[in-house]
Amino acid sequence: MPAAKPPRRIRAFTFDVTGTLVSFVGRLGAHYADCARRCGVHIDPGHLVALEKGFQLAYNETHAAYPCFGGNCISTKDWWRTCVLRSFEVARELELSDGLKNDDAVPRLTEDQKERVFKRIYAQFGSHSTYSAFDDAIPFLRFAKRHGVITGIISNADERYGDSILPMLDIFPDFFIGSKDIGCAKPDRAIFDAAIAEASSCIFCNGDDSSRPIQPNEILHLGNDFEKDFIGARNAKMHAILLDRFGGDNYGDSFSEEGQQWSDAGAPVAKDLLDVIDMLARQNVEFGKPT
Fold first, then answer.
1. What Cα–Cα distance (Å) separates residue 43 from each residue in 35, 52, 72, 110?
2. Tens place of pLDDT for every residue, the chain, 291 residues?
3. N or C: which terminus of the chain has fewer CB atoms within 10 Å of its end residue's CB?
4. Which one, of 157, 192, 187, 188, lies nearest residue 59 by Cα?
5. Residue of 199, 155, 254, 210 lying closest to 12 (CA atoms)
6. Mind listing the pLDDT tens digit for each residue in 153-169?
7. Strand, coil or helix: what is 177?
8. Each residue of 205-233: pLDDT tens digit?
9. Torsion sign (Cα): 174, 178, 181, 186
């Protein structure tokens, strides 16, 4: 894909969530094991790798059966119930196939334990225990608001991000577009088109009847996945910058191996959101409503 010209004016920022505005805290296997332990199921640290592999396989399996967190077919909570409980089953299957004895593998949950363990995990993954905001996230959103720029989320995650996780972290974008509501996921153009329409709606909802609708080339999407965020946004005629937050431990000018691959493929790459502001300043980009 040829390099895009820098934007002349930005009237909306859209964001991916995890890896862009918020980070996952801790280790998934450890969270699962801790929740199980609190429900009377002992899982020692030696099972964490199997739990994490089990989760990934169960996630892919559940997504294949019920795309976009179930869409209109099942609730988000039922989707996660299927995925979480299947994670323990697959972890046990993996360990048994590796030769562990029945009593040494991830325990089989009883029917009573299944519901309690699921509820504990579901609650924990909507709490401060599992997510934190990057230090630059809230200041960047304030920068956008001061400059009259609309902010929104385009996420392949479920609606809990918009309903509880982001507000819990004091992150309040103007809108949230999730794959479950739209029925498709990034990089599908339809989810980006929905965000473009929602960005313009936010202007008129704020009482600004004098502004024309926001155009795709007036939106900058920020994410951390080449296909889902960069290619998806560019196909929708939006601008995009990828964040390589962990390149060189985020010091100096070096990118991670993946970040360098993004750059070599033509994507603008920033180290963090402050770096994004510097990049836009060097390009003399204007913000907000045209004067």
1. 10, 13, 35, 14
2. 656 677 899 999 999 999 999 999 999 999 999 999 999 999 999 999 999 999 999 999 999 999 999 999 999 999 999 999 999 999 999 999 999 888 889 999 999 999 999 999 999 998 888 999 999 999 999 999 999 999 999 999 888 899 999 999 999 999 999 999 999 999 999 999 999 999 999 987 765 565 689 999 999 999 999 999 999 999 999 999 999 998 755 555 679 999 999 999 999 999 999 999 999 999 999 999 887
3. C
4. 157
5. 199
6. 999 988 889 999 999 99
7. strand
8. 765 565 689 999 999 999 999 999 999 99
9. positive
HSE of 249, CA atoms in CB hemisphere, 13 A: 1
Residues pairing with 221 in the sheet: 14, 240
DSSP string for 263-291? HHTT--EESSHHHHHHHHHHTT-EESS--
* Token pair for 99: 């030769």
Do the beta carbons of residue 79 and residue 158 sit within 8 Å? Answer: yes
Residue type at 210?
Answer: S
Contact 39, 113 (CB under 8 A): yes
How does DSSP classify residue 247?
A: G
Amino acid letter, 50: A
ω before 45 within 30° of 0 (cis)? Answer: no
**Are 152 and 122 in contact, with CB atoms under 8 Å apart?**
no
pTM over 0.85: yes
Phi-psi region of 229 (alpha: psi -120 to 50; beta: other; left: phi over 0): alpha
Contact by Cβ (8 Å): 24, 133: no
Q: Determine the Cα–Cα distance for residues 88 and 90; give it in Å rounded to an integer.
A: 6
CA dihedral 69, 71, 73, 77 (to 10 degrees): 40
